[in-house]
Write a structure and sequence with these properties.
The protein is an alpha+beta fold. Helix content is 33%, strand content 17%. The protein has 12 helices and 18 strands. The two termini are 36 Å apart.
């Protein structure tokens, strides 16, 4: 599991022998070489030869993804006795996916300050950062403002007590990178230095998926949903789609949705599952969506354009063209299933054994 987490966060994991793997150290304050972090395949624990960080998958989730103890345990699929754990969220927090903090109002106040400062920094930035969002992500200035995207120019450390988070002798890191907030309840940062992991979630954040509803007043039963991984991809769809769709960004293929959101989705006419066109996206699409929701259909971006909407935009994809083909594919699949024919979905056209959407 630890090796999987490292891979998800952008660290290259290499097999050294039957019982050992290696990778760069995930700690943002360590500059070990590519083989400096060692993972024991039998115990599942890791150890850095340079900074001496050590721990298992739960410790990794707590320190590098900002999860509380119980949430990290649940994420790994373990059942943990509540007795003796300090960071165990209460029942309400377990349902909402919120990481435990002493003072949520204080956390949101601090988050609002960071978000506003980062937002002004991005909009005032005359360098390539803002231009890259416009050119490589297809986001317009009004969309960047709508979702309060921002920029932190250098790694910053702040006191956890200022955020209402129980102190443990360590400061709270706000790494340099693109700030992707979700209201004042979450701060995810796409790191300027991906060598330490592609994304960083500030401790105390709510980990629920980002939900972007259309401006139309149609009821749930008439508003389909699209599920993607990246918040930036979701913003692009919300910006450019001419049809009213609710767009849901998971943030990770392993993100679990709440019972409330699940019941919401069951009322939708259909769900287009557009997780990334890679192995992780294919596995998650089947495991969490098409096998659980009868109205969910796998409709990824064609690999000829890229693995996600960000890459596809750069390569010339119009998201409305993708939507037209996705709906056609969904209807063909639904007809085949209803008629009792063998389920030919996903379509048979593949590239390197990856399902593609014919566009």
């Amino acid at each position: 599991m630890l090796a999987t987490l490292l891979t998800e966060d952008g660290f290259p994991v290499r097999k050294k022998c039957t019982t050992e793997y290696s990778s760069p150290c995930p700690s943002p304050v360590c500059d070990s070489d590519d083989d400096g972090f060692v993972i024991n395949a039998k115990t599942g624990r890791g150890y850095c030869r340079k900074c001496n960080w050590k721990g298992d998958d739960i410790q990794y989730l707590r320190e590098f993804r900002g999860m509380g103890f119980q949430q990290a345990a649940k994420y790994t699929g373990r059942t943990v006795d509540r007795k003796g754990t300090k960071d165990w969220p209460d029942k309400k927090e377990r349902l909402t996916g919120t990481i435990c903090s002493t003072n949520k109002a204080l956390w949101r106040e601090q988050a609002s300050t960071v978000i506003n400062k980062a937002r002004h920094n991005l909009l005032d930035n005359k360098s390539s950062i803002l231009k890259r969002l416009l050119r490589e992500r297809g986001l317009k200035i009004k969309t960047i403002k709508r979702f309060n995207l921002g920029w932190i120019s250098k790694d910053t450390w702040t006191k956890k007590a200022d955020w209402g988070i129980p102190t443990d002798g360590k400061d709270l890191l706000l790494p340099a990178g693109l700030v992707i907030p979700y209201d004042n309840h979450r701060i995810r940062i796409r790191r300027d230095n991906p060598d330490y992991g592609k994304y960083w979630v500030v401790k105390g954040s709510n980990l629920e998926p980002m939900i972007i509803n259309p401006t139309s007043s149609l009821p749930l039963t008439e508003t389909p949903a699209i599920v993607v991984e990246s918040e930036l991809d979701a913003m692009l769809l919300a910006q450019d789609l001419v049809s009213p769709y609710t767009v849901i960004a998971l943030g990770s293929t392993n993100t679990k949705i709440s019972n409330e959101l699940s019941e919401d989705l069951k009322q939708r006419p259909f769900i287009l599952v557009a997780l990334d066109s890679d192995e992780a996206g294919e596995i998650a699409a089947k495991r969490d969506w098409t096998s659980k929701y009868v109205t969910a259909f796998r409709t990824p971006v064609s690999t000829s354009y890229g693995k996600d909407f960000g890459e596809a935009y750069v390569n010339g994809l119009d998201v409305n063209d993708w939507l037209f083909e996705a709906v056609e594919l969904m209807l063909d699949t639904a007809v085949a299933q209803t008629s009792g024919e063998e389920n030919t979905y996903p379509p048979e056209s593949t590239v390197n054994n990856e399902t593609t959407l014919p566009i």
